[in-house]
Amino acid sequence: MRRLLFLLPLLLVAALAVWIGGLLLSGRDPQALPSALIDKPLPPFTLAALPGRSDGVASTDFGGKPMLLNVFASWCVPCLAEHPVITKLGKEDGISVLAINYKDKPDDALAWLKRNGDPYVRIGADADGRAAIDLGVYGVPETFVIDTAGRIRYRHPGPLTPDIVDREIRPLLAELAK
């Protein structure tokens, strides 16, 4: 019995090592954040416009052509880092980018857009974060590719980079536009 008690911690450490080794060798990306909404329609939402803007954003605004939905906030440092990439997609590449301004003060969001540029076709104010919760947003920024039928086809948590856009977003948008 004493021998068994002596071996028990050793067996637990060995089991833990096998489990961790299995995870490391599985090839699974530990930073991947899967979305249950891929290939499903956008959840219904309607968000009012920021003050001074003519249009808010609603789930019914998507469809007919591939579009991006970007979730951002003025207080979000990574949002500022990705903003030139979003601006290039919207202004230079002609991709329709609609946005949800997440848990932000309207005056702060408007000042941020004035200072950094406004590449968005429409922006809805999600003051309580309800629409973002329904979309499964983990944090800002987060970007979704929406197909011609209004279904979520791709989700990228975190800031977009030129590499991600070139490797994942542009090819998907080209495929969806066919």
Overview of the structural elements:
The chain has helices spanning 2-25, 77-92, 106-116, 130-135, 162-177; strands spanning 46-47, 57-58, 67-72, 97-102, 122-126, 142-146, 152-157. The chain has a single domain, classed as Glutaredoxin. It has 178 residues and is of the alpha/beta class. Strand 3 (67-72), helix 2 and strand 4 (97-102) form a beta-alpha-beta unit. Keywords: Cytochrome c-type biogenesis, Disulfide bond, Redox-active center. It holds the Pfam family Redoxin.
Keywords:
Thioredoxin-like_sf; 5 helices; Glutaredoxin; alpha/beta; Thioredoxin_CS; two-stranded antiparallel sheet; 178 residues
How would the blueprint of this fold be written?
Elements: H1 2-25, E1 46-47, E2 57-58, E3 67-72, H2 77-92, E4 97-102, H3 106-116, E5 122-126, H4 130-135, E6 142-146, E7 152-157, H5 162-177
Parallel strand pairs: 3-4, 4-5
Antiparallel strand pairs: 1-2, 3-6, 6-7
Family: Belongs to the thioredoxin family. DsbE subfamily.
Domain Thioredoxin: 36-174
Main location: other
Outline:
With 178 residues, this protein is of the alpha/beta class. The protein has helices spanning 2-25, 77-92, 106-116, 130-135, 162-177; strands at 46-47, 57-58, 67-72, 97-102, 122-126, 142-146, 152-157. The chain has one domain (31-177): Glutaredoxin, CATH 3.40.30.10.
